[in-house]
Prior knowledge:
Elements: H1 2-5, H2 10-28, H3 35-53, H4 58-71, H5 77-80, H6 87-104, H7 107-116, H8 125-139, H9 145-163, H10 170-188, H11 197-210, H12 216-241, H13 249-253, H14 266-292, H15 295-304, H16 308-316, H17 321-333, H18 345-348, H19 353-371, H20 374-382, H21 391-405, H22 411-428, H23 434-443, H24 455-461, H25 468-493
Helix pairs in contact: 2-3, 3-4, 4-19, 6-17, 7-8, 8-9, 8-10, 8-12, 9-10, 9-24, 10-12, 10-24, 11-19, 11-22, 11-23, 12-25, 14-16, 14-17, 19-22, 20-22, 21-22, 21-23, 21-25, 22-23, 23-25
Amino acid sequence: MQLQETGLKSHQRWGLVVGVVAFTLLLLLPLNLPAAQHRLLALLALTFTYWVTEALPLPVTALLAMLLCSVLGILPAKQAFAPLGNPVIFLFLGAFLLAEAVRTHELDRRWVEWLLSRKWIAKTPFRVLAGFGLSAWAISGWMSNTATTATLYPLAWQTFQELRTRLVRPENFGLALMLTCAYSSSIGGIVTPVGTPPNLIGLGFLTEQANVRISFLQWVMAVAPVGVAMLVCLMLIARFMVKENSLSNETALSLTTRRLGNPLTKGERNTLIAFGTAVGLWVLSGLAALLLEQQSLIAALERIAPTVKQVLTFLKELPEAIPALIGAVILFVLPAEEGKPTLSWKDAQRIDWGTILLFAGGLALGDAIFQTGLAKRIGELITELPFAKTQLGLTIWGTTIAVWFTEVVSNTAAANILVPIVLATAKEAQLSPVLPVVGTVIGCSFAFMLPIATPPNAIVYASGLVPIRQMMLKGLILDIISPLVIVSLLWLTSPLLGL
C-alpha cells in the first residue's frame, strides 16, 4: 500500500524487491571470494537492478552505493565519498552552469532561428530537416541532449504546422522532423567532452584508474568524425522519408523572425564572453600540448621569450575543470539587464545536480571494483570472449554492448556500469584502455529505438507524430550502423588520442 502511495510504477516496485532479494542472496551464498569482493558483488547487484528498473531516482541509488560501500566495509568512508571532490565533478558543474546561461538567455534559440532563416535552407523540406539536424547537433555538443531537444521541439512543431498543408505526405515530414531533432541531439552530444555525461565518465575513469589524460582538443579531433558520419547517416535516412517539394522563402522565413531582428542583450553578450573564455582555454590547452612536442620550435621561441615553455606547460597541464569554472564565475560577476548578474543562483539551482551525484556514485563503485580486486576477476572472464584480448576486439565488444544496453538503461547509468568493466578487461589483457573506453562511452549515448531509452526520444514521441513502430524501425537501423561507424572511425583517429 505504501509503495502505491509513493506513485511508483509496477516495474519500479518489482525493482525494489528484486534488488533487495539479489543483494541478500548474494550475501548469503557461499561464494569462493574474499569478503570485500563478496560484499561488493552483492552491492553491484542491488545498484545495477535499481539503475535498470529506476526503482529509486538514479542519483539516490548512487548515494546509496557510496553509503553502503562504507557501511559494508568495502571502502573507508573517506575513500567512498572522495569522488564528490573529483575535479571531473567540477567540470560537470562548470559546464552545466554555462549551458544554463545559454538556455536562460535563449542563445540556443537565436542560433536555430538564424540558421533556419537562411534562404538555401528554406527551399525544400529536406533542407529544413537538415537545418534542424545541424542545429541540434551543434547545440548538443555544449548543452544536455534533453535541453537541446526541448529547445528545438516548439520550433519543430511550429514548422510542421506551417508546412503541413503544402506537403504531399505531411505525416512523413512530421515523423522525420521529430526524429531528426531527437537523434541529432544524441549524436551531437558525443563531439565534445562536456556534451553528455558519459563522455566525462569515461574521461574520469581513464584519469583515475589508468592515469591517462585526454585533452579537450584531442577528444574533439578524434571523436568529431564519428559525430559527423552519424549525422550524415541520419540525414540519408531522413532524405528517404520526405519528398522534395518547392517551398517559398517567405513561408520559411515567417517561422523564424522572433529574435533575429533584435540586437544581442547584455545577458547574451556576457554569456558569449564566459562561454568563449572556457572554450578558448580548452583549445589553448590542447594547442600547448601539440606545440611542446615541437622541440625545435620551442627552442626558437625561448630565444625570443624565455618563459614560453613554462607558459605552455602550465596551459597543457591545466585541468579541464578550471576553464569551465572560470567561465561559470564570469556569469555571476558580469551584470546583465537591470544590474542583475548574467546567471543568478536561482538560475543555477536548475542545473542537473542529480547527474553530478550519479557520476560520483559511479566513480566510487569503479574505485571499489579495482581496490578489492574484483575488476581483475571480471576482466579474466571477459577476456575469454572471442577477440576480446585484442584492442580492436575489445573496442567492438564494448561499443556494441553499450549501444544495445543503453536502450534499456539511461546513458549515464550505462556508462557507470560498463566503463569499469571494459577498463578492467583492458588491464587484464594488458591493452591500452583508451580506444575501448572511448568507444563504449560513445555507444552509451546512441539510444535510438525506444521512447524510454533517452529523454530526447520521449520528448518527440509525445508529439503524436512518431508511431512507436517507426521509431523502433529507424532506431534499429541506426543501432546497427553505429557500432560500425564508431569502431572504424575511432580506429582511424586513434593516433590523435595518443595511440
